[in-house]
């Protein structure tokens, strides 16, 4: 009997130096718009969750009012921008009772993250589905551990959504509250950089996963908002993600959040049985001089 396996998680390209914007104009300061994926499947067009990096368990969140106003192009100004997004509970973002923070380097929490991502990626099979799911979940966990151990703190982060209500926190262990996951990776793919004026790097959002029973409850909204808050903290001007071209729900929500399509996969990908993807980008309200001081 042939063994069915889910596609392996992809590894990122080597990372380049920090981004530097050369535009002479500052983008209009505005609040960080939020958007949500329409379903539990990963909305990265197959590239989600593959960065081989390490992450820190620091917990920070943006202020409830969204992005800050323009700050002086000094180290103190950049620090103030980050401080404006900190929260006493360690959340990068809050939305509809959910809180988003960086994943902690704790065994049970990492296993929970692998569970959420495996449920999002796994395609059921007719026979021995439980066996194949457990096998795939082990692969996801192995890849996550590798990223945790090998990532600088400002190049990769796994963000998790949990119920932030105090009553729920008392009844559950921290890892049991995790219902959504997303990966944020600093990348520098040339085919994407040509669409990002003056940038050497960007923050790539992938692996958005939500447990089935928590769909359409703004879990994804909180995840995407936190990704943008992290991009502001790391002083990246551009957010980038991929979505399937035929996934109108996801594309519509990303467009509403401020993302726009800049490129598509070539037609020939459909000849080999693959779904076409689109690349969508969003520009964040960060001063050029702030980015240049990275």
UniProtKB/TrEMBL annotation:
Signal sequence bounds: none
N-acetyltransferase domain span: 111-285
Ranges of Low complexity composition bias in the record: 16-25
SUPFAM superfamilies, per the entry: Acyl-CoA N-acyltransferases (Nat)
Annotated InterPro entries: Acyl_CoA_acyltransferase, GNAT_dom, N-term/lysine_N-AcTrnsfr
Stretches for region Disordered: 1-32
PANTHER family with a match to the protein in the record: GCN5-RELATED N-ACETYLTRANSFERASE 10, CHLOROPLASTIC, N-ALPHA-ACETYLTRANSFERASE
Protein name stated in the entry: N-acetyltransferase domain-containing protein
Organism encoding this protein: Urochloa decumbens
Phylogenetic placement of the source organism: Eukaryota, Viridiplantae, Streptophyta, Embryophyta, Tracheophyta
């Amino acid at each position: 009997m042939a063994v069915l396996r889910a596609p392996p998680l992809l590894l990122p390209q080597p990372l380049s130096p920090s981004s530097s914007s050369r535009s002479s104009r500052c983008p209009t300061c505005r609040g960080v718009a939020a958007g949500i994926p329409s379903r539990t499947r990963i909305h990265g067009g197959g590239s989600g969750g593959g960065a081989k990096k390490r992450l820190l368990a620091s917990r920070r969140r943006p202020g409830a009012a969204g992005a800050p106003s323009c700050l002086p192009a000094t180290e103190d100004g950049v620090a103030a921008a980050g401080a404006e997004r900190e929260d006493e509970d360690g959340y990068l973002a809050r939305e509809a009772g959910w809180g988003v923070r960086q994943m902690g380097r704790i065994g049970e929490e990492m296993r929970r993250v692998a569970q959420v991502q495996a449920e999002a990626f796994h395609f059921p099979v007719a026979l021995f589905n439980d066996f194949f799911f457990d096998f795939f979940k082990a692969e996801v966990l192995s890849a996550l551990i590798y990223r945790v151990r090998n990532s600088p703190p400002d190049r990769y982060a796994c963000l998790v959504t949990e119920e932030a209500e105090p009553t729920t926190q008392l009844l559950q262990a921290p890892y049991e509250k995790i219902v959504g996951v997303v990966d944020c990776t600093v990348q520098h793919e040339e085919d994407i950089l040509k669409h990002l004026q003056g940038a050497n790097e960007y923050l790539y959002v992938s692996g958005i996963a939500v447990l089935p029973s928590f769909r359409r409850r703004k879990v994804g909204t909180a995840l995407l908002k936190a990704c943008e808050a992290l991009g502001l903290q790391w002083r990246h001007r551009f957010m980038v993600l991929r979505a399937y071209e035929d996934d109108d729900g996801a594309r519509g929500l990303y467009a509403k959040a401020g993302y726009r399509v800049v490129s598509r996969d070539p037609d020939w990908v459909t000849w080999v049985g693959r779904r076409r993807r689109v690349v969508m980008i969003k520009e964040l309200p960060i001063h050029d001089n702030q980015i240049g001081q990275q």
